[in-house]
Design goal:
This protein has one domain: P-loop containing nucleotide triphosphate hydrolases (Rossmann fold, 3-Layer(aba) Sandwich), CATH 3.40.50. It has 6 helices and 9 strands, in the order βαββαββαββαβαβα. A 7-stranded parallel sheet has the order 4-2-6-1-7-8-9, sandwiched between helices. The chain is of the alpha/beta class. α1 crosses α2, α1 packs across α6 and α4 packs parallel to α5. The relative contact order is 0.20. The chain is globular and about 45 Å long.
C-alpha cells in the first residue's frame, strides 16, 4: 500500500518545503501542495522539483493557486473565490505521495475549515519544528491535536541543534524523530540527496 505523508509545521517559515523535498527524494515519492498562496511565479512545487534528483517523482498541480502570500482564507477572498474542501482532491498516482500543508494546522481555509481538515485518517503526519522562543508550546500543541485525532506522527527538527528544546519535546510527545536538518549555507540537489539518504530508513518504516 502506498504511503501518504502530510508535512505540516508549527507555524510558517519553519522549513516545510525543504523537509518535503528531502522526504520526496528519499522515498522517490510524488509531491502535491493543495493550496499555494503567493509566489506563483516560483511556487513551493517549483522549489521542490528543483531540489529533487530522481526521475520517478511527479509533481502535481495545486488545487488552489492564490495570488497573495496570506492565510488561504484571506488570499482566496482577494481573488474573489472561496476554498471548498470537496474540490481539493488527491492526484491519482501509484506512487507514495507527499502532501505539503500551508502554515500550521489551524490556518483557516474558509469560515469553517482549516488545514487540519485536509489530513485524512490514513495519512502519516510529519511535523516540522524549528527552535524559537515559543516553539516548544507550538510543537506540543500541534502534536497533541494530531494525537487526539488519532494520527501517526513523527517530527523533523529544522535548524541548529537546541538540546533542551528537542529533549523536552521528545519526552513530552513520545513521537519518533526522523532527524534534524541543519542550518546549511544553501540547499541544492546534492544537499537534499544527502539528507534523503540519512533519513531513508526512518521514512521507509513509517
Amino acid at each position: 500500500m502506498n504511503k501518504k505523508i502530510f508535512v505540516t509545521g508549527i507555524g510558517t517559515e519553519v522549513g516545510k518545503t525543504i523537509a518535503s523535498a528531502i522526504v520526496v527524494e528519499s522515498l522517490q515519492a510524488d509531491y502535491f501542495k493543495p493550496i499555494q498562496a503567493g509566489d506563483l511565479e516560483y511556487s513551493d512545487t517549483d522549489k521542490v522539483q528543483e531540489l529533487v534528483s530522481n526521475s520517478k517523482s511527479k509533481f502535481h498541480s495545486n488545487s488552489y493557486a492564490l495570488k497573495t502570500p496570506m492565510s488561504p482564507h484571506a488570499a482566496a477572498e482577494i481573488d474573489q473565490i472561496s476554498i471548498e474542501i470537496d474540490k481539493i482532491t488527491l492526484p491519482k498516482t501509484n506512487n507514495d505521495l507527499i502532501i505539503e500543508g500551508a502554515g500550521g494546522l489551524l490556518v483557516p481555509l474558509n469560515n469553517n475549515n482549516t488545514i487540519l481538515d485536509l489530513i485524512q485518517s490514513d495519512y502519516h503526519v510529519i511535523v516540522v519544528s524549528r527552535h524559537y522562543l515559543g516553539s516548544i508550546n507550538h510543537t506540543l500543541m500541534t502534536i497533541q491535536i494530531l494525537k487526539e485525532k488519532g494520527y501517526n506522527v513523527s517530527i523533523i527538527f529544522n535548524g541548529a541543534a537546541h538540546k533542551t528544546t528537542e529533549s523536552i519535546i521528545k519526552k513530552m510527545t513520545g513521537v519518533p524523530v526522523i532527524g534534524r536538518i541543519d542550518n546549511e549555507p544553501y540547499f541544492d540537489k546534492m544537499v537534499v540527496s544527502e539528507y534523503a539518504e540519512l533519513f531513508r530508513d526512518q521514512l521507509k518504516s513509517l
